[in-house]
TrEMBL record:
Protein name: Alcohol dehydrogenase 1
Keywords: Metal-binding, NAD, Oxidoreductase, Zinc
Residue intervals of the Alcohol dehydrogenase-like N-terminal domain: 33-163
Family: Belongs to the zinc-containing alcohol dehydrogenase family.
Organism classification: Eukaryota, Metazoa, Chordata, Craniata, Vertebrata
GO terms for MF: all-trans-retinol dehydrogenase (NAD+) activity; zinc ion binding
Cofactor field: Zn(2+)
SUPFAM superfamilies associated with the record: GroES-like, NAD(P)-binding Rossmann-fold domains
Length: 375
């Protein structure tokens, strides 16, 4: 039995930014009080992992084990863990839910105050790490770290899901799918018959499209500079797609014309501040709502004329689509099992952990939506 012992296993370690990941033998310490050790089964590669590797999210410390879109099976639990036991299927929560803080108690917020997003301590809640490699301490990433055969999670960062869920698909509910879907349903609250535009048609943007469709939007316009993304976007619900490179005039002018006075809702799913500004401008100047979903570089600033908001527009944002992880993720998995939405269309590639750098290359080349790594 491994319970109570250090586990030696493989992990993809990021030693420094702007370098390929390296597959290493690491040691994973047993879970302490209110912690859970998980054997990973599947994890997606998200653009946010790449933002860290590229150095664009500069506060993350190295060496680190990245990855935050994971699903696995509980290997052992530490003292005090009540509702999770070895053998349970779980999804990792990069946006945790402690259930006790001011924001967890507010039904309007999912931004648990214990979240490591933005702070990037790289540690477990008790301020220590469970990972070592070659005698060095390795940082955790936003309470998850899924690019490893075994990881340790604080109980607040674990959602227990039903036993019959296919982990190689529902891992997307751990980040990309839920972020996009929730941005449409929870953050924008898209109304039936409305007009929507989704800027950036990667795994997150496509999930916004799915959410807009479920909400009954009449028009869902996909916007991407890579026209190769259009076929899949239409397959999951986009009613038309446009490429800003094919127009001389600014894209918000084009969208204003297509929608007779501006969109009801727009979503920025790229992480580019000038696109955020044009997504806002493309909404109706009085009743439009624009949602920031993409993660911009740490140092970036958004340039806006206040008049664009003064006339009545709403600018919003959300992490993880506004979902409270432990409450909502099991329900999202149940909705998937009940065929309320599909995830297959979002998964473009499957690779073993050992080929993780190939997965990042596919993302850089614009060829992948989601690459799911298996173990
Ligand atoms: P992705 O890289 O797969 O998709 C981005 C898409 O945007 C690609 O299809 C690009 O071709 C397209 N694109 C790039 N530049 C432009 C441009 N100027 N105009 C139009 N299209 C363009 O990324 P993803 O879908 O994995 O993630 C998208 C963003 O969402 C990224 O910034 C990621 O960090 C962020 C994210 N946020 C959360 C959250 O909780 N808010 C969660 C997960 C991901
Ligand atoms: Zn992500
Ligand atoms: Zn909390």
């Amino acid at each position: 039995t491994t319970a109570g012992n250090v586990i030696k296993c493989k992990a993809a370690v990021a030693w420094a930014p702007k370098q390929p990941l390296s597959i290493e033998d690491i040691e994973v310490a047993p879970p302490k009080a209110h912690e859970v050790r998980v054997k990973m089964v599947a994890t997606g590669i998200c653009r946010s992992d790449d933002h860290v590797l590229s150095g664009s999210i500069s506060s993350v410390k190295f060496p680190v084990i990245l990855g935050h879109e994971g699903a696995g099976i509980v290997e052992s639990v530490g003292p005090g863990v009540r509702n999770i036991k070895p053998g349970d299927k779980v999804i990792t929560l990069f946006q945790p839910q402690c259930g006790e803080c001011r924001n967890c108690l507010d039904p309007k917020s999912n931004m648990c105050l214990k979240s490591d997003i933005g702070k990037h301590t790289g540690m477990m809640l008790d301020n220590s790490s469970r990972f070592t490699c070659k005698g060095r301490l390795i940082q955790h990433f936003v309470h998850t770290s899924t690019f490893t055969e075994y990881t340790v999670l604080d109980e607040m960062a674990v959602a227990k899901i039903q036993d019959d869920a296919p982990l190689d698909k529902v891992c997307l509910i751990s980040c990309g799918f839920s972020t996009g879907y929730g941005s449409a349903l929870n953050t924008a609250k898209v109304k039936q018959g409305s007009t929507c535009a989704v800027f950036g048609l990667g795994g997150v943007g496509l999930s916004v499209v799915i959410g807009c469709k479920v909400a009954g939007a009449a028009k869902i316009i996909g916007v991407d500079t890579n026209s190769d993304k259009f076929a899949k976007a239409k397959e999951v619900g986009a009613t038309e797609c446009i490429n800003p490179k094919h127009y001389k005039e600014p894209i918000h002018k084009v969208l204003e014309r297509l929608t007779e006075g501006g969109l009801d809702y727009s979503f920025e799913c790229i992480g580019n501040t000038s696109v955020m500004a044009s997504a806002l401008l493309s909404t109706n100047y009085s009743c439009g709502t624009s949602v920031i979903v993409g993660v911009a570089p740490s140092a970036a600033e958004l340039n806006l004329n206040p008049m664009e908001i003064l006339t009545g527009r709403t600018l919003k944002g959300a992490i993880f689509g506004g979902w409270k992880g432990r409450d909502c993720v099991p329900k999202l998995v149940a909705d998937f099992m009940a065929k309320k939405f599909e995830l297959d269309g979002l998964i473009s590639h499957r690779l073993p952990l050992q080929k993780i750098n190939e997965g990042f290359d596919l993302l850089h080349k614009g060829e992948s939506l989601r690459t799911v790594l298996y173990f």
